[in-house]
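queue> holo job accepted (5,6-dihydroxy-NADP)
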Amino acid sequence: MHFTYVNPTQINFGQGQIQSIQSNIPVEQKVLVIYGGGSIKNNGVYDQVVNALKDHTWCEFSGVEPNPTKETLDRAVAIVKEQSIDFILAVGGGSVIDGSKYVAAAAKYDGDGWDIMLGQHRVTSAVPLGAILTLPATGSESNMGAVVTKAETQDKLSFMTPHVQPKFAVMDPDVMKTLPEKQLINGIVDAWVHVCEQYITRRHDAMVQDGYAEALLRNLKTLGEQFDERDNDAWRANLMWSANQALNGLIGSGVPHDWATHMIGHEFTALWGVDHARSLAIVQPSLLRNQIDAKRAKLEQMGKNVFGLAQSDDLAEQAIAAIEAFYQSLGVTTQFSEYENGKEDAVEAVIEQLSQHGMTALGENQAIDLEQSRRILSLAIA
Ligand code: NZQ
Ligand code: ZN
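queue> job finished
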């Protein structure tokens, strides 16, 4: 345990909190409101934003797509530069918030914003931003990461910098009322895998991180089991807060991280448009089986403390089966079959992408090279 931890995002949690943006954004600042395909126009969120910003000067940019593209976002970058925007307000799910982070950083750079994603430009400043979260899943509302796609080349890459950490996050569970079931399930699965990526590694004896990770996993499991109660206030609030805590930096402080499931999963989204969470459910069980020796101690701990399984010689195997059964109980498939030209082509397509993106030593031990990825994919692709 050796770390520096700060999470400077102010969280405004609860019903009716959207109006808090009125005082959280200085009134003299010119605001660009960024949103997605229009869900906020159908659930009253847009109207609440308009009302809260009545004393501000503001304009808007819409049409940020799920898995946001550089091509779309660069049009917002131009607006920020041309109109001297002082503050960006992201209103949406992970895609809108991630996209807004890219816009915030690219607007302070004279070159092509994609250089940031390639690590060829180091971000040293960004336009300040805040977020109104409408889909609990990614934790993007209070972390410093973002994932952006270049549609032209099917590259889905991530970047991290404290400069794009939101100043505040509004988390009103009422906004979840219009979420399709599919997106609620995606939220449970994405948050679950975020905890796993920071927990199913090797034994490290960091009791706070492990204990809190297990509490979050048990919450998410319960919320999945109580999916029939998704229309109640407590269910919504608990999912929103659990998903946030899963990736706000705390449980990952001072412990090893994996993230191989995410890196391989991103390629399924880039190649075939698989929803982010669903790409994870496809990759993770196969990856855990491939890495079972290195991860055995933590899988056994998870089996006991999350699934309540008894000690046995195959406890780690049982824990993986329980994870897989959890996804399947939510109707989420754990193998991929939507490829065009047969399994071998599909496996090689992902390998080619991983190779191009330098994803050749993944996982907490950097043990997942392309050969191991090929084995994982042979299990994960039907
Ligand atoms: O665009 P609109 O019309 O708003 O519709 C969206 C979108 O179609 C809809 N939606 C959102 N809130 C709604 C709603 N529909 C009805 N009612 C509401 N209240 O949901 C659809 C999906 O939205 P999206 O933002 O794409 O989903 P999510 O939050 O799952 O974000 C996924 C993106 O986040 C990245 C993923 O790679 C993916 O690009 N991630 C970001 C991370 C981060 N920044 O830390 C970590 C994650 O691991 C992840 O990689
Ligand atoms: Zn994720």
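queue> The first helix runs from residue 21 to 24.
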